[in-house]
Amino acid sequence: MKPVPGTEATDAEQGAGSRPGEAPRGRVRAAALTLLHLLALGLTVLLYLAVASLIALAIVRVGADLRDGIDPFTAQDRRPPLHPSQIAMRELALDIVRQVVLALLVVATALWRDRSAWRQRLALDRTRPPGLRASRLLLILLVWPAFHILWVTGTATLFHAPFGHQVALSPMLTAAALAAWLAYVVVLAPTAEELLMRGEAFARARAFLGPAGAIMVTAALFALAHLSSAGLARPISLLPLALTLGWLRWRTGRLWPCIALHGWSNLAFVAYLLWP
Predict the structure, then answer these.
(1) Staple partner for 123: which of 87, 93, 164, 255, CB 3.0–4.6 Å?
(2) Which residues, 6+ apart, have CB-to-CB distance to 1 below 8 Å?
């Protein structure tokens, strides 16, 4: 059968879309672009954490100095020595203020970036029905502490790290300070970290990755953000929690279940460590 007049394609036109090497080059470009996005995401998370730490350090340093009757601008070699209780209170204040500043930075950035859609960006809205029944979420909350404690303590033992056992609170903390520390562990830290990781970072990751990729990338960033003197032991101990939080964020479409599981996990582990 003869082709319809005017529809014949030249050899050049027929081969234009399948030149040798074009497909591999396209895959390389796509991989390079994804790598750049990943690098930008990692740097963004690092920037959030660094800025929050610097602002918190300035606030606590100046505020604590004024409270203790010290000129904040006194040279370091001329500053009076601090009592151990003052040091403990400053360290606690720094942890608390850092998380508050981090949460405010994330929310402020989302407001500036998306205006009225900031709640949707951070998965704080209720426009989408939850993708997980309440009974299943409750089941996860019930069984999680035992698994988390076993995993973290097992990781600590495997790496000979100190964070899974022999932990005690500073005797320099007052009752009010202990209450503030507990609120930091159970409420402030989970809220701020989830706003950053499963809120802002997850939204950025989903712009160029599928659900599984976003879950894994944010889990890796969350784990690496907890690097300590124990090396990779602490990040590895948090990987199951990070992956589960990412899965909850994707499955439910909301951030509140992530905050709840994170806070409950922290409370259960602290109770296990401090139980006499």
Answers:
(1) 255
(2) none
- Helical packing angle, 134-159 and 233-252, nearest 10°: 170
Task: Give the C-alpha separation, 153 to 274, whole Å.
Answer: 14
**Residue 182's pLDDT is what?**
94
Residues of the chain with pLDDT under 50: 1-2, 4, 6-8, 10-16
Distance CA 62, CA 67 (A): 9
Distance separating alpha carbons of residues 168 and 131, to the nearest angstrom: 40
Instruction: Tell me what pLDDT residue 62 has.
Output: 95
Q: How far apart are CA 104 and CA 112, in angstroms?
A: 12
pTM above 0.85, yes or no: yes
Residue ranges of domains in the chain: 39-72+82-124+136-274
Inter-residue contact 176 to 92 (CB < 8 Å): no
Residue 263 confidence (pLDDT): 97
- Tell me whether residue 143 is exposed, middle or buried, using C-beta atoms within 10 angstroms of its C-beta: 0 to 12, 13 to 18, 19 or more: exposed
- Structural contact between residues 240 and 148, judged by C-beta atoms closer than 8 angstroms: yes
Task: Say if CB 273 and CB 199 are below 8 A apart.
Answer: no
